[in-house]
């Protein structure tokens, strides 16, 4: 939803941009990044709809929102949880997450309208910062909830814009009072739009997810030497930009020729001094490696590390690597 709002059953859409255009004529980047004003607008809308459905609202310390349907007859039973997340990437993924949250709410409203009396509570969740665009790692709210990341560490995460997640949750009013994991679940079910084109290509309308891919996020910095673009001969250059381009090509060629599900992406890149007539002295970029098999993912990480070791003396540059996130694959039951 490129106007950055949740929109359902004819609800009026409100503009709540997550990122603004900085210069006249610059295209607005649409998104609902975690902790942003647009995220607040989406959260407020979800909470309002949940309350209208008669649900009790609870928010935990990491900002995960829960709409809970229970009564005196089942309040002592472990609940069934539905849901997903409402933060987005930039200019893509308009149904990712939102589909699971809104469908979970729809399930509860439909059961209520049918007069159904559940044997245990049913809740719908909107987890915080699952996309991980502004704050790394991704899947953060559910990771904290499941006990895989201390909440204090998550709240102290510094974003790509130098903001701190905990402070932003305070600012938008979603620094909750509940301890993460306060709901002890009977089961969790998530409906999700496929993020890729596979089902459509295969003509399959719906599928069950078999696994979560292993993820390796790294930030690579290459340092060379700035020099004049017109007067420095090619053999005398220590070009950090060219070295970075070689890494991108290496990753792409290796993944395309692997005949495996491995994927490799360089999504962010910056140059210094970033001038048209100056050889870059410094290039910083991210690498996103994914594979559903842990051994293959480790092999890809090792291949990249070896390539960087060989590249540095060849290009006469210095290369440093920072790990941003690392998750092993998960095979579902």
Short description:
This protein is of the alpha+beta class and 333 residues long. The protein has helices at 37-52, 98-113, 140-145, 151-155, 165-172, 198-202, 240-256, 294-315; strands spanning 56-59, 65-69, 80-85, 122-127, 187-189, 211-212, 214-223, 263-265, 269-272, 282-291, 318-327, 330-331. It has a five-stranded mixed β-sheet with strand order 1-2-4-3-5.
Topology:
Layout: H1 37-52, E1 56-59, E2 65-69, E3 80-85, H2 98-113, E4 122-127, H3 140-145, H4 151-155, H5 165-172, E5 187-189, H6 198-202, E6 211-212, E7 214-223, H7 240-256, E8 263-265, E9 269-272, E10 282-291, H8 294-315, E11 318-327, E12 330-331
Parallel strand pairs: 3-4, 3-5
Antiparallel strand pairs: 1-2, 2-4, 6-12, 7-10, 7-11, 8-10, 9-10
Task: Give an overview in words.
The protein is α+β, with helices and mostly antiparallel strands and 333 residues long. The protein has two domains: 37-202, 3-Layer(aba) Sandwich (Aminopeptidase); 213-331, Alpha-Beta Plaits, CATH 3.30.70.360. It has eight helices and twelve strands. It has helices at residues 37-52, 98-113, 140-145, 151-155, 165-172, 198-202, 240-256, 294-315, and strands at 56-59, 65-69, 80-85, 122-127, 187-189, 211-212, 214-223, 263-265, 269-272, 282-291, 318-327, 330-331. The chain has a five-stranded mixed beta sheet with strand order 1-2-4-3-5. Strands 7, 8, 9, 10 and 11 form a five-stranded antiparallel beta sheet that branches. The protein has a two-stranded antiparallel sheet with strand order 6-12. Helix 7 packs antiparallel against helix 8 (294-315).
């Amino acid at each position: 939803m490129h106007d950055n709002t949740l929109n359902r059953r004819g609800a009026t859409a409100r503009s709540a941009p997550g990122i603004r255009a900085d210069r006249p004529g610059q295209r607005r980047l649409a998104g609902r990044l975690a902790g942003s004003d647009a995220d607040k607008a989406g959260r407020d809308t979800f909470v309002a709809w949940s309350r209208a459905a008669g649900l009790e609202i609870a928010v935990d310390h990491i900002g995960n929102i829960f709409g809970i349907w229970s009564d005196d007859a089942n309040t002592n039973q472990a609940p069934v949880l539905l849901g997903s997340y409402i933060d987005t990437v930039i200019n893509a993924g308009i149904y990712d997450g939102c589909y699971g949250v809104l469908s979970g709410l729809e399930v509860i409203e439909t059961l209520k309208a049918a007069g159904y009396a559940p044997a245990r509570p049913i809740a719908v969740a909107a987890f915080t910062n699952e996309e991980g665009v502004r704050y790394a790692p991704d899947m953060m709210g559910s990771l904290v909830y499941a006990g895989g990341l201390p909440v204090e560490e998550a709240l102290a995460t510094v974003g790509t814009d130098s903001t701190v997640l905990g402070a932003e949750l305070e600012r938008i009013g979603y620094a909750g009072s509940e301890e993460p994991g306060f709901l002890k679940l009977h089961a969790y079910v998530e409906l999700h739009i496929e993020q890729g084109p596979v089902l459509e290509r295969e003509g399959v309308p719906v599928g069950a997810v078999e696994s979560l891919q292993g993820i390796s996020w790294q930030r690579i910095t290459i340092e060379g030497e700035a020099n004049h673009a017109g007067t420095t001969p090619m053999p005398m250059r220590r070009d950090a930009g060219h070295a970075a381009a070689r890494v991108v090509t290496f990753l792409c060629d290796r993944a395309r020729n692997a005949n495996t599900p491995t994927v490799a992406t360089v999504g962010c890149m910056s140059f210094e001094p970033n001038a048209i007539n100056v050889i870059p002295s410094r290039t910083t970029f991210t690498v996103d490696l994914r594979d559903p098999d842990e051994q293959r993912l480790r092999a890809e990480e090792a291949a990249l590390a070896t390539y960087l070791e060989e590249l540095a003396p060849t290009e006469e540059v210095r290369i440093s690597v920072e790990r941003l996130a690392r998750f092993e694959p998960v095979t579902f039951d």
